[in-house]
Amino acid sequence: MFELNKEYTREAIHSVCGGSKQAFLPAKNGGIVAACLRTDLNPQAPHVIICDGSASARAAGRTLAAQRNAIPVFIKIEVDSFRFVGLFTVSESLTAPLVCAPYVRSSGFTPGQVSRVLKMARCQ
């Protein structure tokens, strides 16, 4: 599928996984198919994913939290270049603002802007 530490474009990720080419958690057929993360918004990526309070991020976070299958996770390196860092599953889903707050530091979000923090575990 993807080669560890190799860089891919959003088009290449989309061609394999499907879903939106713009969403940080693209969905297809009711499930999240990948994570494409920016380190300025997710400084602890790939081990922590922060979902803001927008409707789309809330829905994607809720969907991923309920999902048990692994997804490929990519970290943005530069414009339209994402490094594959492995397959991950959700190990914990946090929604209480005080519990989420430590993970939100240095993320560009305030605790009040965050709807969910997903702790991720590597599968490979």
Automatic annotation (TrEMBL):
- Its recorded name reads Uncharacterized protein
Q: What are the top taxonomic ranks of the organism?
A: Bacteria, Pseudomonadati, Pseudomonadota, Betaproteobacteria, Burkholderiales
